[in-house]
Fold this sequence. Notes:
Order of helices and strands: HHEHEEEEHEHHEHHE
CATH superfamily: Vaccinia Virus protein VP39
Strand order of the largest sheet: 3-4-2-1-5-6-8-7
CATH architecture: 3-Layer(aba) Sandwich
Amino acid sequence: MDLKEEHLLGNFIRQHWYYQSKAKAVNALLNDISPSCILDVGAGSGYFSRHLLDTTAAKSAYCVDISYPHDWDEEHAGKTIHFRKSAEQVDADLVLFMDVLEHVEDDLSLLKDYMRKSSKGTLVLISVPAFQCLWSGHDVFLGHQRRYTLEGLQSVVRAAGLQIHSGSYYFALVAPIALLTRSLNKTPEDPQIARSQLQLHHPATNAFLKILCEFELPLIRFNRFAGLTAFVLAEKVSS
């Protein structure tokens, strides 16, 4: 999760259609998997860790982000979240990379590095922005290096030595809206000019977009064709 977007949305982020829908997608992809400890890489405010602490039996979470000014701990729903600038070794059974790999030049090295710190049997859930044709000032503003196809993301995951459980796209029904919007706006290459497309919406617009995503959610595991986001759930199978 990008702290730049949290600064833009403020407390409204908890009601924003995009984040609410993505959090529900995480639950749908994990299905009946209930982690004990979560490692959230590039966690920002810890939005997804907080969501999983609320909706699963997870007892604790480690949120790691190089942008944190210092290390600290918080209590959430009677459970502990450890915010850390780095992590050498964490005994987590679920590792999240929620919109992280697209920010680094060498995505494979980052993934391999965290897999070396993880135990055999650790599950890894990854989300990335999908399709280079959707590249826009939104990506420039957030400092993205690339967007992915599902096949491209899966290639990186396999190269990191992980076994893939599932891979799919999400936000297919809102993708045409995003494609139209971005095609009408020239992509600013200057990060000082580029802006995020996430914004505060009228409540009716926010509700409509949430309904579109809710309609799509039951089919998320079967969508290997189109969407704004690509997801992969994988597992570390070797020591």
